[in-house]
What we know:
102 residues; alpha+beta; globular
Amino acid sequence: MYASVRRYTGNPGLADKFxxxxxxxxxxxxxxPGFIAYYMVKTPDGAVSVTVCENQRGAEESNRIxxxxxxxxxxxxxxxxxxxxxxxIVVTTAAATSGIRx
Length: 102
């Protein structure tokens, strides 16, 4: 698996603006080849998004898909390109859910 992490800075409240378009973002990011998961994290100065894909090609394509969507839908809101980090996922874990009651 590969992940691409995009860090948007210098734009407090950006995550809330992205969240208001969550259905649109979900629809477009799911077109990423080998798509597995997507996460948006709210930060004090902007947002961080993480796209997980089956392979490097998908992770890299997710950057292009995100940039194109922003250019078409939020050009006056996201004016600074994100810092991008991408690479192979080498450790993964998840919560055990058996026996947990809510």
